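R.M. (postdoc): so does anyone remember the format we settled on? I'll just put the structure tokens first.
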């Protein structure tokens, strides 16, 4: 009996086919080709590969196969200095300028001091003439007044792109620092005195042939200025009231630059000049 059972059990085990429980095929037969393309055999890079004996063309080809960009030669970026950062040897206006007549004692004394300081200015003018043969001090005084008027008119309209042609990169952020949310009305009425060059200097930066020139012009004009805040309320000045303005404006030019031009650079405020009227500010209160 036992022998019969053992024979049946052996026959059953022989006829049993083992089936795999874990399926390796994807359940969805679609997109079979696309699933095959997801896997690729990478090209293993030999770490101890000698590249010294390879030519530049072969090395470039191998780098291109691996998607490696060729190394660029080291080169420092160029620095362009379009203007100076300040006024060098600034002009010191005489106290009471514009109030005394040249025929008075104080006015005659001011003219004598101006002639004593004229030597360095003359040397600077001669340096400018080396780059501009047709340069003339009297003609430049009239030209500076035109630059002054056009620059202020563009500033009042807040045309930043055009203003860069009339002011230096040093003065540009200083002008627009306090102009946010403000409206400016500026008008030039007339010149009370002819524009006059009172000071001129030349200097070099980094190299001896990189020369900048600065000319200080005395402008005594009649102007109208009114400043409105963002709510349209008058903060400073008046559109009706005319005021006499005495200013010492510094113009600068990059002489070494063939395409350089004279631009507004700074304004000299003497220590003896009284402070102007402060602008009232608007605040939000809780």
């Amino acid at each position: 009996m036992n022998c019969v059972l053992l024979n049946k059990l052996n026959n059953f085990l022989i006829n049993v086919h083992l089936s795999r429980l874990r399926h390796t095929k994807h359940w969805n037969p679609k997109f079979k080709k696309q699933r095959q393309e997801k896997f690729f055999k990478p090209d293993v890079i030999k770490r101890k590969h000698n590249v010294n004996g390879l030519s530049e063309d072969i090395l470039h080809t191998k780098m291109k196969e691996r998607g490696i960009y060729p190394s660029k030669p080291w080169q420092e970026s160029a620095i362009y200095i379009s203007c100076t950062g300040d006024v060098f040897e600034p002009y010191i206006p005489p106290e009471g300028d514009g109030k005394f007549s040249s025929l008075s004692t104080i006015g005659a004394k001011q003219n004598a001091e101006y002639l004593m300081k004229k030597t360095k200015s003359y040397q600077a003018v001669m340096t400018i003439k080396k780059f501009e043969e047709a340069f003339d001090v009297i003609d430049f005084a009239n030209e500076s007044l035109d630059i002054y008027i056009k620059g202020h008119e563009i500033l009042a309209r807040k045309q930043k792109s055009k203003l860069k042609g009339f002011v230096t990169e040093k003065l540009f952020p200083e002008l627009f620092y306090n102009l946010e949310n403000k409206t400016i009305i500026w008008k030039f009425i007339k010149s009370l005195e002819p524009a006059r060059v009172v000071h001129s200097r030349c200097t070099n930066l980094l190299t001896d042939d990189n020369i900048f020139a600065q000319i200080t012009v005395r402008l005594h004009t009649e102007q109208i200025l009114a400043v409105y805040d963002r709510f349209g309320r008058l903060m400073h000045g008046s559109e009706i009231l005319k005021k006499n303005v005495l200013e010492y404006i510094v113009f600068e030019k990059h002489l070494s630059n063939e395409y350089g031009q004279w631009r507004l650079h700074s304004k000299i405020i003497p220590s003896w000049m009284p402070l102007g009227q402060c602008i009232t500010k608007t605040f939000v209160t809780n």
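R.M.: ...and that's the designed sequence above, right after the tokens. Also worth knowing: The mean pLDDT is 81. The radius of gyration is 40 Å.
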